[in-house]
């Protein structure tokens, strides 16, 4: 059973201090997000109270109540009302008011079984993720706890203390029922056996493990006794849920489950594990979750944005398509939201920086990295060997250095494994934006000491010092540079700062997770085929002048090493050819993505990426008269 609509007027349950609540087209999961103190818990309590009142009215027909109300209202309006004294009139009006309120309560929650008034609402999430073992409890105490749990006298707060006792008691009863020759059992053996099998199946459903019993009569899971269980926090909670449902004889597949701020009792990974497990078993039931956990909200929004609602002082609104509303409500200040966004981007940026460091090697090493995916320790060792072979440090320019993560990654690894990085890597940073200058300079100072001029914000500064580099690394940079600037970048600037045998190293995340408007054409992402066209790479030049590596083998994080001599081949014609090739590939990617059956969130994300790339490349071609 599922609640399909909630329509609670604020005057219906005045004690709860809620605004008018109106929620329609509710899904199998209802996530109500909002900051502390806004009323999320009170909302669940109000819905639960309406459910309890409906259950009390389950024997009364809504149609019969309405008919009685019409008769009573008609009596009040009729001439015979004059024959009633004031007390009788008051009693009549009071009866009408009670019927009206009952009708409001019944209609406040609409369910998918219109004939059913009773709502099987269960507060399901235990408050503790540990288990109390039997210890020194007497058999009488164990039986008492198990019996109280069956009667519903023990709430969720006490589940962790009673779960062990419950299983122990159920297993003992089952053992006696299946060993009648012992003469210790009195009762319906078939009923006890069936009951225990339901518990066994429930635990197996939730944990994927069969409940068993040791020779000493102790409950066992995963081949270990429960007091030596080694279960994760999420597994312990799932075990308690299985026991709670069994004790209350609730069928999860037809229950309405309430989880109130579960993040207060479980860390994010365990919480998502529990919720995913419940989702896989809920059937025609429903889960309500009140939360301010951004990881949980993000996880469930990726499954279906329609699950997500946001609560404020005016009421509740659907917010799955308005994540900024949720983030603003939960995080407050704009800079807090930006800090979160920056932190979430950090793994991708670090992965790109680490991969770029892997590619700062001779040709044969770059080719090997795609197959072996060496760790930074291996890269550092090979950089050291290259520097020793050439009897000088490898000179690198980090073009668009940002916070200096490329240097930071290399520095930390050298410090742990290879000694001083400065002996083997001669690093320089170029970053025209000043926002992260201090952070990048701090990394440089840590490696090379203060007072060394290694940070530049203008290429003319580099040219004036007549610096020449073995590698100029552009890590997640090229897609942000306006195509009109490519000619100057590759044919002039790179030519003037690269050594004769030097290369440009382009590293890009080709599954860019967020769109950007870096310039009038948005952003442009070129892969191997388009770069080959851009620089007119000829057959046979792939091994020495043009190389690429695919870090994960999935086409996402790729690096291209382009020799200095190829940069001179960039022409207006080759650039147009590269953009036409990008349009063609974008069309093929879009067509393939639309053929996928049962697409998920990541499929939609990639479809959005390729649609944008097709539009951006087409806009460029149109602007050049080739649209």
Helix content: 40-55%
**Rg to the nearest angstrom?**
34 Å
Query: Which CATH C-level class of the domain at 347-577 is it?
Result: Alpha Beta
Count all strands and give the number.
19
Quick take:
The chain is about 50% helix and about 15% strand. It is an alpha/beta fold. Among the domains are: about 125-255, no CATH class; about 345-575, Vaccinia Virus protein VP39 (Rossmann fold), CATH 3.40.50.
Overall description:
- By secondary structure, the chain is an alpha/beta fold.
- Among the domains are: 125-253, no CATH class; 347-577, Rossmann fold (3-Layer(aba) Sandwich).
- It has 21 helices and 19 strands.
- It has helices at residues 40-56, 62-77, 86-108, 139-151, 159-177, 189-207, 233-247, 268-281, 294-303, 323-331, 334-358, 363-372, 376-390, 405-417, 437-448, 459-464, 486-497, 528-534, 564-567, 572-594, 601-623, and strands spanning 3-8, 21-23, 29-33, 109-111, 121-123, 212-213, 219-221, 224-225, 256-260, 286-291, 308-312, 315-318, 394-399, 425-430, 455-456, 469-475, 498-509, 546-550, 557-563.
- The chain has a seven-stranded mixed β-sheet with strand order 15-14-13-16-17-19-18. It has a six-stranded mixed β-sheet with strand order 5-9-10-3-11-12, with helices on both faces. It has a three-stranded antiparallel β-sheet with strand order 2-1-4.
- Helix 4 (139-151) packs across helix 5 (159-177), helix 13 (376-390) packs across helix 14 and helix 18 runs antiparallel to helix 20.
- The protein is elongated.
- Residues 361-379 have low confidence and may be disordered.
- This is AAA+ ATPase domain-containing protein.
- Pfam families: AAA_21 (PF13304), Methyltransf_23 (PF13489).
């Amino acid at each position: 059973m599922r609640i399909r609509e909630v329509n609670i007027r604020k005057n219906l349950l005045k004690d709860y201090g809620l605004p008018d609540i109106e929620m329609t087209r509710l899904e199998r999961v209802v996530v109500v997000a909002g900051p502390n103190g806004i009323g999320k818990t009170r909302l669940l309590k109000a819905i639960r109270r309406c459910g309890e009142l409906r259950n009390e009215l389950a024997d009364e027909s809504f149609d019969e109540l309405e008919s009685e109300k019409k008769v009573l209202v008609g009596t009040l309006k009729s001439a015979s009302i004059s024959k009633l004294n004031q007390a009788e009139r008051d009693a009549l009006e009071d009866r009408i008011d009670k019927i009206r309120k009952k009708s409001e309560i019944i209609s406040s929650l609409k369910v998918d079984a219109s004939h059913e008034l009773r709502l099987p609402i269960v507060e399901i999430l235990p408050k503790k993720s540990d288990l109390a073992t039997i210890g020194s409890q007497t058999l009488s105490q164990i039986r008492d706890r198990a019996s109280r749990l069956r009667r519903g006298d023990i709430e969720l707060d006490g589940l962790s203390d009673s779960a062990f006792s419950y299983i122990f008691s159920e297993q003992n009863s089952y053992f006696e029922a299946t060993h009648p020759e012992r003469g210790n059992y009195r009762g319906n053996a078939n009923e006890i056996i069936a009951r225990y099998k339901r518990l066994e199946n429930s635990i197996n459903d939730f944990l994927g493990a069969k409940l068993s019993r040791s020779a000493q009569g102790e409950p066992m899971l995963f081949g270990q006794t429960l007091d030596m269980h080694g279960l994760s926090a999420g597994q312990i909670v799932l075990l308690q849920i299985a026991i709670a449902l069994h004790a209350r004889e609730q069928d999860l597949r037809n229950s309405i489950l309430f989880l109130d701020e579960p993040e207060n009792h479980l860390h994010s990974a365990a919480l998502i594990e529990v919720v995913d497990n419940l989702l896989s078993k809920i059937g025609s039931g429903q889960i309500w979750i009140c939360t301010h956990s951004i990881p949980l909200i993000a996880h469930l929004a990726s499954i279906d944005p329609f699950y997500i609602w946001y609560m404020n002082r005016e009421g509740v609104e659907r917010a799955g398509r308005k994540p900024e509303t949720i983030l603003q409500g939960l995080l407050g200040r704009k800079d807090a939201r930006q800090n979160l966004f920056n932190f979430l981007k950090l793994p991708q940026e670090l992965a790109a920086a680490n991969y770029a460091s892997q590619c700062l090697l001779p040709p044969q090493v770059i080719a090997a990295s795609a197959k072996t995916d060496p760790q930074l320790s291996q890269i550092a060792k090979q950089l050291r060997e290259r520097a020793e072979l050439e009897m000088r440090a490898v000179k690198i320019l980090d073009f668009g250095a940002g916070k200096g993560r490329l240097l930071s990654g290399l520095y930390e690894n050298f410090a742990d494994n290879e000694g001083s990085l400065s002996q083997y890597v001669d690093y320089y940073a170029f970053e025209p934006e000043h926002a992260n200058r201090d952070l990048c300079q701090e990394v440089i100072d840590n490696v090379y000491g203060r007072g060394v001029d290694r940070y530049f914000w203008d290429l003319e500064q580099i040219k004036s010092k007549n610096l020449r580099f073995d590698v100029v690394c552009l890590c997640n940079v090229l897609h942000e540079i306006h195509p009109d600037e490519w000619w100057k970048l590759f044919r002039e600037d790179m030519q003037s700062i690269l050594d004769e045998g030097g290369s440009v190293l382009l590293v890009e995340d080709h599954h860019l997770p967020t769109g950007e408007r870096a310039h009038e054409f948005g952003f442009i992402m070129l892969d191997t085929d388009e770069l080959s066209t851009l620089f007119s790479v000829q057959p046979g030049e792939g091994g020495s002048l043009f190389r690429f590596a695919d870090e994960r083998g999935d086409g996402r994080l790729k690096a291209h090493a382009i020799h200095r001599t190829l940069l001179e081949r960039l022409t207006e014609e080759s650039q147009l050819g590269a953009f036409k090739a990008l349009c063609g590939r974008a069309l093929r990617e879009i067509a393939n993505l639309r053929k996928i059956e049962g697409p998920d969130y990541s499929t939609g994300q990639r479809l959005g990426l390729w649609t944008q790339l097709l539009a951006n490349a087409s806009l460029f071609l149109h602007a050049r008269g080739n649209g």
